[in-house]
Specification:
Mean pLDDT: 80
Low-confidence stretches: none
Helix content: 40-55%
Order of helices and strands: HEEHH
Distance between the termini: 25 Å
Strand content: 5-15%
Number of helices: 3
Strand order of the largest sheet: 1-2
Length: 102
């Protein structure tokens, strides 16, 4: 029973994030998030490089979207493979995605 409540509460929390992301996209504005003391700026989806369509690799897409400087800043946090999902979750959330990235 508690599990259903937790999922319901999580769903309620993601709705404002989705609305904020949709507003930012409509206004052609990027969004930002913080990860390990570093602020990352994410451009609107329609401004993503066309090269993201050339790859199915999640990390390559992330590199293209963040750009060289922000990717280098991420690497300076000395991430491990275990840490990557946390970053991807924050990235997805700022884009209005749910916990599965949708």
């Amino acid at each position: 029973m508690a599990n259903k409540k937790t999922k319901k509460n999580a769903a309620r929390k993601t709705v404002p994030a989705k609305v904020d992301a949709q507003k930012a996209e409509a206004l052609d504005q990027g969004r930002s998030f913080e990860h390990r003391g570093v602020a990352f700026q994410v451009i609107p989806v329609k401004k993503y490089p066309v090269a993201v369509l050339d790859t199915d690799d999640e990390v390559d897409v992330l590199k293209l979207i963040l750009g060289k400087d922000q990717w280098a800043a991420y690497l300076e946090t000395e991430p491990t493979l275990e840490d990557l999902p946390e970053f991807l979750e924050k990235f997805s959330a700022v884009q209005g995605g749910d916990e599965t990235g949708n």
